[in-house]
Write a structure and sequence with these properties.
Length: about 140
């Protein structure tokens, strides 16, 4: 199965700044949008190595089997992306972000953080994701974190 989505390798991604890459899936100046379906988020996750090719293909199959749930999830991700964009834009202008946008971001962060666990590592401790990679929603948790 091939994932029919935007090829993010054609644009400049920011290493270790997945949240900014996610916001930049829309060019707000010319209204060009590269996040037209949830498969586009899967493609971004594949390009930044959040998913391996097998996981991406599996998620593509899951998405195709649950179109109404994934459409709702896609709307949620677009609303989150736009809220993050507006928060960052306001901060860059030394303006206070809209309370509704901050609430949207905090709600997403709360959900994301509920899937993180602190674990011992060779350098002390590290954050580990406790997610089911078969659940399409796990991508947005990692994006927002």
């Amino acid at each position: 199965m091939k994932i029919d989505a935007f090829d993010f390798s054609t644009i400049h991604l920011l290493p270790d700044h997945l949240c900014l890459d996610f916001v930049n899936t829309s060019n707000h100046q010319n209204e060009e949008d590269h996040h037209n379906s949830y498969l586009d988020l899967v493609a971004l996750a594949l390009d930044v190595k959040l998913l391996n090719p097998d996981e991406a293909l599996y998620l593509g199959e899951v998405i195709s089997q649950h179109p109404s749930q994934v459409a709702t999830l896609h709307q949620k991700t677009i609303a989150l992306r736009e809220a993050i964009y507006r928060v960052l834009l306001n901060v860059s202008r030394d303006e206070a972000p809209d309370e509704a946008d901050v609430t949207t971001l905090n709600t997403a962060l709360k959900e994301a953080m509920s899937h993180l666990r602190l674990a011992p590592s060779s350098n002390g401790f590290e954050w580990l994701w406790e997610v089911d990679k078969r659940d399409p929603e796990h991508l947005i948790w990692q994006v927002v974190w």
